[in-house]
Amino acid sequence: MHDTTTDALLGGRLQLTQPLKGYRAGNDPVFLAASIPIKQGEHVLDVGTGVGTALLCLAARDNSIKGVGVEVQENLATLALQNTEQNNLDQTFTIIKADIFEKIDQIKGLQFNHVLSNPPFFESEKTTVSSLSSKKLGRMIEKGDLQRWVSFCIKHVRPKGTITLIYRTEGIVEILKTLDGKVGDIKIFPLWSKRGEPAKRFIIQGRNGAKGPPQLLAGLVLHDRDGTYYPEVDKILRHGAALKL
Q: In DSSP terms, which residues pair with 46 in a beta bridge?
């Protein structure tokens, strides 16, 4: 595919092909994957998988897992499939090009041990766009669609299985409202760019059908004053370490 780059992921353990311009995977899917409490042989669903970054990172931690990635953008879904192949994970993960707001026959009725997602975070009515480029489409969501997105995730989680999202802090109320009564044992884990600054992102994780009040955890500070990553963060981003919530 033209206009792509192939970049090292997790310190070179994985190779990630992605668009040269537009959507490019950042650290969010790496943190998302690190937070999933996977066990040997479990099945995962990545909703809005992009180029498959989170799935690749999960497999780097445990190559016995199986999973599905759903992506609406055809070019990203094609690259996600290519990434599974070039990392010898095409027998591990299935990539489906589909819109989660429409019927997806391939996963109809299926439930997974873990469902993870990095949903689009800008409501389109608040964002001025001249065209639906890959990057813009990947970051846009219509008013009310965040609840539908989270509801789709809940529908595909097995009883007591986990749903894990990474999102911007302004969406926390809407997400908690959608999880209420369905998902419990919720943990809210802020990601602080630097000490003393407001957290702009958080990881939220709960168990389908579980009980118990939400917990606001201490979270993780990413950068030291000079902008370098703290050692515990570097272990996640470069070495694929787990992030225990």
A: 69, 116
b or e along 170-184 (b: 16 or more beta carbons within 10 Å of the residue's beta carbon)?
ebeeebbebbeebbb
Instruction: Name the strand (E) or helix (H) holding 185.
Output: strand 183-194
- Separation of alpha carbons 109 and 113, rounded Å: 14
Q: Where are the beta strands (DSSP E) in the chain?
A: 4-9, 14-19, 43-47, 66-71, 93-97, 112-117, 122-123, 140-141, 157-168, 183-194, 201-208, 215-216, 220-223
Q: Which residue has the tokens 């389109």?
A: 124
Regarding beta strands 4-9 and 122-123, do their DSSP bridges make them parallel or antiparallel, or are they unpaired? unpaired
Q: How far is 30 from 139, CA to CA, in rounded Å? A: 17
pLDDT digits (tens, 9 = 90+) for 28-63: 999 999 999 999 999 999 999 999 999 999 999 999
Q: What is the pTM of this model?
A: 0.91
What secondary structure letter does DSSP report for 239? Answer: H
Summarize pLDDT for 129-159 with one digit per residue, the tens: 434 444 444 444 565 689 999 999 999 999 9
Give residue 61's region: left, alpha or beta (phi > 0; psi -120 to 50): alpha
Report in angstroms the alpha-carbon separations of 28 from 35, 53, 100, 125, 202. Answer: 11, 9, 21, 24, 10
- As beta bridge partners, residue 97 has 71
**How large is the angle between the packed helices 53-61 and 74-86, nearest 10 degrees?**
20
Going by C-alpha positions, the residue among 71, 68, 82, 52 that lies closest to residue 115 is 68
The distance of Cα 144 from the centroid of its chain, to the nearest Å, equals 20
Q: Which amino acid is at 62?
A: D
